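Hello support,

Our group uses your service weekly, and this is the first time we've seen a run hang past the timeout. The protein is DUF4283 domain-containing protein. I'm not sure whether the cause is the sequence or the server load. Input pasted verbatim:
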Amino acid sequence: MMVDEVINRLENMKLTTEKEEVIVVSDEERKDEIESCAQSLIGKFLTCKPFNKRAAYNTLKKVWGLHNGVQIMEAGPNLFQFKFHTEFDMDRVLKGGPWSFDNQALMLRRWQKGMTAKNVKFESVSLWFQIWGAPFDMVSPKVVVEVRRRLGVVEEVERRQKQEHQNLFMKIKVALPIAKPIRKGGFIVGSDGGCTWVTYRYKRLPMFCHYCGLLGHDVRHCAGFFAASKNGGEVECQYEEVPDRNRKQQNTTATAVDVTADNNDNDSCNKEGGEISETGPDFQGVNACMNEGNIAITDIMASTRMEINSVGLSGAEVSEVMIQ
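Update from on-call engineer: The timeout came from a worker crash unrelated to the input. Re-ran successfully.
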């Protein structure tokens, strides 16, 4: 009787899932697509806002100088595949960044076998910035190796002289983790125990949150800011901007932002203070905030000098603007 009941139950059981037949596709059958994908990049805009895809496509092709040399296909929500006609162009675009559209950073990575819209991950964004205030005997590429432990993966190092209050600074391109807030500066210590505060000045800083310091969203889309301000109290921000009313509006879709943290107290390693300045006409407006020793201001300059990276772009659609 027990056996009959078990048999009846098994006969009446309905499988909730079916095992599908495994289809094996050889490399020979997908040879053409492998060759095509091998010269492609997968990209994603670091943003929380909708944007005009057609305008982004046209602008990127223009700034890259590749009107017919690249095919852009949408691979998923805010996910794109850029197929290049030559490996040279693909490498030039990948190394020539950072790139942005409408102040939204474009994250790029090489295509790899097995990559799908669901498993592709973007964990960092490349940014150029300068390190100011280091002792003269520490202005070297070797020091940058130590700095990268605090920031991210150093992709390129440049040393340049500039006649200002300080004679030397180090310029580096770093892949910054998008899960961490941008840093204003840091302390470096020599073998003699001397502690020196160095400041970071970012070039073409894309959209970021003035409250939490994360890239990819602004204060109005920040869950942390919402939680801190829902009780109606005053909220302190790490970064802030004060618009210059004398600034004429510019019809640009991408801007450069120079975030500078300055600390004149080099005798102490226990606190960070100073002035943070951000420049760029496309920043979202927020009320002024102070944070014990830190005053963040946005200095929107009246004049700009446009610098285009090796692409000969005329106009200011996606220009790499260096405010000086």
